[in-house]
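Q: Could you fold this chain for me?
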Amino acid sequence: MRVTDVETFVVDADWRNWFFVRVTTDTGITGVGEALSGEGLTAALDATAEAHKHYVIGEDPLNRKGISRKLRRYPFAWRGGKLINAVAAAVDIALWDIAGKHYGEPVWKLLGGKVRDEIPVYANGWHIGERTPENYAHHAKKAVEEQGYPALKCDPFAHYEHSLTDDQLDEVADLLEAVRDAVGWDVGIALDCHGRFTRRGAIEVADALAEYDIMFLEEPVELEDREVMADVTQHVDMPVATGERIYNNETMEDVVRKQACDIVQPDVTNYGSLQEVQHAASMAKSRYMTVAPHNPNAGVSTAASVHLCAGLENLEVLEHMSRDVDWADEIIEHDFTVDDGVIEVPDEPGLGVTFHPDAAREYPGEPKDSHSLFDEEGALKRP
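A: Sure. Below is the predicted structure, expressed as structure tokens.
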């Protein structure tokens, strides 16, 4: 069996684009992968995939390590960078999909087996519209009562950065108090800071909001200085999570060794390969840290993450988007639905998804604003 083609698809997903890769073999088996596109990056991903697909075509699709090594190391001047790792991750996911279909087994079994049948999830993307206590409460209640999520993550900090004034802290506290009043105290609440605070600002925010029983504080500061991150982690009274922007184990090892957080958050769509994410989880496990994979992505990423999480002994929880564009199911057909706070681990061969390329072409992605996660009023951009 040999790879005969590598196709890319940039798909409109409203405030962002999705990026998919389809790998075709000479036996007719195809696999689908996804790369973390973020805002404004899909054109660069597309160009990177086009420039590097010759490392994949003609190869044995079951030789994932050999293909991954070529993709990530052969481009000497640019090897191991963010774009190349994201493309390599998408190809790797597609190759696992092919392998599962070839052997008639689910990806989790090929990855080494599972230690759980259900994956616990939390909701992201639920807090849309006006940044008011009433709106936050309405959507939080809907996510919990109608969609069955046991935990919610939000970024309630609008355009604020570095540190918050007393009035700004009061604004954020009002939002969280409204959510607590709406969903109660058994529901988890995680706060995503997107690396916006200084060391002092992060500690002040954590101290001020600790009364709301925060599940974890995500990216309170940027990750470039792991010692500062570790200092924040030691000085706040809540778990700290980080890692979504890490794309190699050299950086992750430094985070783990310095105990720069409590929870690591690798993303399967930018980490190069699923086995590299397994290695990251093993490193975290050796220092008694848990894993909560980053996954604000489309259905292929969710599928790959579920298969991965099935075998992680130190899994904390998996991120899941509670909202999607109306045409999502036309492009990725799957059964990865949230039921009573969990997603069931599938037994279908491969990833357990069906990719519809013709549907993907009907919704071509256009360049997106890459400057901010927020609109002019401070509301998070979400479909």
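A (continued): The chain is about 35% helix and 15% strand.
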